[in-house]
Amino acid sequence: MADTVDALHDILAGHCLPGDAREPMPANPFSAIDDRPVIHPYLARRYAKSIGHDVALTEAIGRVAAEEVEVYPPGIPVILEGFRVSADAVQYLIEARDKGGSIVARDTSLATLRVL
């Protein structure tokens, strides 16, 4: 068992920040979410199949989202169906992805987003 712990320590030692510093996560994403949807999320989901189309993530800013996008951790949606996509939300998603966050979306690379 001690060999396993020592091996794990050796592997992880190369991935630690100097002086046990912590790399902060991006700013609060929830300031980017409007308090009311543009259209009901159920309708956004239905319309996504007929009139929804994929655009580059940065081109989605200001448009109505037709899909949910979340980052894990914490696993809370940042972009919601039926809500307008904000620049803050897009920036948060890109920073979180670049820092190793797991993206839960149709396109996990964040190259595109489905909008109405």
Widest beta sheet: strand line-up:
3-2-4
Number of helices: 3
Shape estimate: elongated
Order of helices and strands: HHEEEHEE
Biggest sheet statistics: 3 strands, antiparallel
The helix fraction, in percent, is 25-40%
Question: Rg from C-alpha positions?
Answer: 18 Å
Mean pLDDT: 84
Strand element count: 5
N- and C-termini, Cα separation? 55 Å
Poorly predicted tracts of residues: none
Percent in strands: 15-25%
Molecular structure report:
The protein has helices at 2-13, 41-50, 87-98, and strands at 53-56, 69-72, 76-79, 102-104, 112-115. The strands form two sheets. A three-stranded antiparallel β-sheet has the order 3-2-4, covered by helices on one side. The protein has a two-stranded antiparallel sheet with strand order 1-5. The mean pLDDT is 84. By secondary structure, the chain is α+β, with helices and mostly antiparallel strands.
Itemize the secondary structure elements and their pairings.
Layout: H1 2-13, H2 41-50, E1 53-56, E2 69-72, E3 76-79, H3 87-98, E4 102-104, E5 112-115
Antiparallel strand pairs: 1-5, 2-3, 2-4
In short, what is this structure?
With 116 residues, the chain is α+β, with helices and mostly antiparallel strands. The protein has three helices and five strands, in the order ααβββαββ.
